[in-house]
Write a structure and sequence with these properties.
This protein is α+β, with helices and mostly antiparallel strands. The protein has two helices and three strands. A hairpin with a 4-residue loop joins strand 2 (62-69) and strand 3 (74-83). 9% of the residues are buried.
Amino acid sequence: MSHRRILSVNDIISHLEDNDDVLSADIYITPPDNYDKSDEDSGDEESSNINHLSRQQLLAQAEFRATVSSQSNLDIIEKYQMKFL
């Protein structure tokens, strides 16, 4: 089952944090239109931390696909695959 809704990266993060059935997720964030300001709020580039995303990154276009647990086994469920404006 496939659903497509308009969400921000911040909405995706909230969804993943709120759902215990999500075991792992791949998130693709579209690069921002204004590259000059894309990393103005970023921290150390050697460490990745979802809590240090800039406002532009949180509002960026994104897609994600999640592996979720089902009652019988583990499946990659396309209902979690979304494309965002």
